[in-house]
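Quick one: structure tokens for this chain, please?
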Amino acid sequence: MVDVGKADCVALAAIVCYVAAVVPSVPRLLSIAAGTLLCFGLAGVAVAAALLPGGSGLVARFVAVAAGVLAVGVVGGEVLNHYESGVTRPNWLQLGLVTVLVAYTAAWARGGDRPWHPKRATSRRPSANTVAKAMISALMLITAIALSMASRAGEEAFTEVWLLPDGPEHDPLGASSAVLGMKSHESTTQAFTVVVETGRQMERKRITLAPGQIWTHAVSVHGDKALATVYRDGDADDPYRTVWFVTR
């Protein structure tokens, strides 16, 4: 029988927490708790397990886990902040899971299947236990990739639209110009028709946005209200987004 060490338990718990956090049918409170435990608990424990030498004392373990949790929070937040999608819940969950799996693999590679205990001597030929752990690691990685893809596919795709007065603090009162903008959060390229009404004139534009692309357009405001209506390509009867502001 395969001897499942503490590092294995942490990795398996991370998979369970990730599943609980991304599956829509899981109650919200349980989903939040699972995600928090994964990102700010198990990730720190896994990092400490991968770095600490065998036979470390209780105080050293506690300090290493605390440092690991802080490191994941600070470094992880900084890394995600440079992503185009930003510091979002799905990104945090994926970062937490990847951190645990990488730390687990590092512990296993150095013989740290029991990272809190002295390393045991190993033979040149891989044992059944080592082969089993390699298979578990591969299975966990495949599962993580599949769950991440399913989670991304289940996210709602949308396009962000804004119409901001072009003035100090974007104050609409007395505004004579504005900036109309759109940002695609879609997974594929989308086409839109934009109709802008500014009192004295109406302007119609057709634009195409790739995933993550931002489009802006300067608008002159002549009346009491600036209005922009966005239609998806092929659906001219049902407005997709409507934004406006009044100048008086």
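Residues 112-123 have pLDDT under 50 and may be disordered.
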